């Protein structure tokens, strides 16, 4: 498993600073599951009962994690309070640490595997977010096409250097898939606030139906369908119970878009996973390679069905 930093890894002066924010000494900690970063992801509770969520990391632990935490802090500072996002409390440098502190989002991660009820709730929440956040209220964000576009050109890199385990179905129509992925990148452009990294471990659900989106490091400006299609691309559905492709079509129908758009976007996302599945192992992110291979294998079935 990925080793996350915890409260016990923090130096005493940093602990003292966090306890000032909490208004008292820390009496309990809870590490959150999910994700691949070595950054801490802990809920701290003080003697007074206040709870805060803390991400803290040093560049030597993982430079990428620190950069993402800084990006998230910048986004959270300007995302409207009406969005389903835990509010930012503080973000600061402490010696060689960068620390991001938010309120604790209510709820728990979705069930694994997903249930239809939970998936419907999250898709509805994404529709509500996009309706409320168009035009994009956060200035200066890159477009989803800019942030995800290079990843979605994975089939170009596969064509230049095919992996030994390339799926024969992909190999037979690689040029067509490359064209579809490029169309998919174009379809992600727009002027809506997008999370741009929507998957199960970035979502919290309450029993009352409330949805919170966490980990806003990739916040972007894009199409009103971008987050919903990214979510559906991440949902394994080996027995077809969740009818992922029917849900993709329903999203497109609601926004008056051709269903081919869904095929193109999912093809681009598949391109990333096919390419990334053969990247060198990163010992600081030990779970990432298996995650990419699992999602490659799940998504190729979805794209084949649409094709």
From TrEMBL:
Superkingdom of this protein's organism: Bacteria
The Aminoglycoside phosphotransferase domain, residue ranges: 42-249
Species the sequence originates in: Brachybacterium tyrofermentans
Listed name of the protein: Phosphotransferase
Family annotation (Pfam families): APH
